[in-house]
């Protein structure tokens, strides 16, 4: 039963894909093809990212991280999170192991949430695409609203969650 609980998302996805292939073989084949392509991309990206996260864990001293992203970091924490998230490349699932590592090292929850928000909203490749597709005005409004939003969501998370609980949840979810 524990195996089914642990793999329920994969089981449900597989059943849905099988059902789609049975109902509409052409669309089902397309869906299976897209799913397998995405899984392949993910499995090719994750190992180097996990190595990078391990190196970050070893190379970055906890006291240094606390100095720049800890509870007393103020504007420096925002700037570091902005640089980390803005210069990043790759899909969002790459950001989560990095965020957990930063959290374990002592980074403030506010800056972790802001980092994740910057990763989704203000990554350099996304900003450049938006400028070329929508213009500077739209991009500036979108990025600034996103940055303010994620900063204040980070403040909210900081007030309502503590690091130990989040890390305990992380370990609990991995164990299931």
From TrEMBL:
Primary site of residence? membrane
Which family does the entry's similarity section mention? Answer: Belongs to the UPF0718 family.
A single GO CC term for this protein reads: plasma membrane
How this chain sits in the membrane, per its record, is: Multi-pass membrane protein
Cellular compartment(s) = Cell membrane
Transmembrane intervals: 38-56, 77-103, 109-131, 138-157
Q: What is this protein called?
A: Permease
Q: Which organism is it from?
A: Halolactibacillus alkaliphilus
Q: Which InterPro entries match?
A: DUF318
Q: Which UniProt keywords apply?
A: Cell membrane, Membrane, Transmembrane, Transmembrane helix
Q: Which domain of life is it from?
A: Bacteria
